[in-house]
Amino acid sequence: MRGQKALSLIIWLVLIPLAVVLGAFLPFERAEAAAMLAVAVLALVPPFVSFEKKDHTAAEVMILASLVAFSAVSRIAFFALPGVKPVTAVVVLAGVYLGCEAGFAVGALSALVSGMAFGLGSWTPFQMFAWGLVGLLAGCFARTMRERRVPLLLFGVLSGVLYSLLMDVWTVLSAEGAFALPRFAAAVVTALPVTAVYALSNAAFLLLLQKPARRIFGRLKTRYGVFAVKQPDGRSA
Fold this sequence. Notes:
237 residues; mainly alpha; Arp2/3 complex 21 kDa subunit ARPC3; 0% strand
């Protein structure tokens, strides 16, 4: 278990950020596509390593695929409303009720799949990492948020801010070719109205989706025994 946890942390916090940065800076053609593929593959390693130790692998893969599809469709459905996207809420709930591995995988793959409708580019690996990180953190704080609404809604707001800050890093890198703090500060200030709308809409979607998600995931766990959520201390919830 410790080896599996260490592998997951190395992938999430070292290899995936490295792939994202290299995709932004490497000069060769299709570096962005290579970074997207690397992030997608690496994002799936922890959940599938975890799945191999359980009996209902097929059921869990289908649940993950369904969540990614729902998340991608929801983003497309709200394309006309800038800053209002249910993706973060879906990713947060995946992390809260299904665990860190599932949360990261749903976040990263939702960005990739929905990006096929909106267009893929150098920003996509950053989106994959940002939404994946949101799902990962949701899994880490799942015990606090699973039954308590206020921490969940607050996390939704903070997730919107975190996502926006990480995407502002891409904005600076794409404009400057290197990270420049003054340009980053300007990007953050310029994006404040959209960030505020996004953060508050995350809380609204979580408020709307929490009860159905808790009921659905509870039934899945009871009926199929899938996704026994692991806390950072290694205990099952």
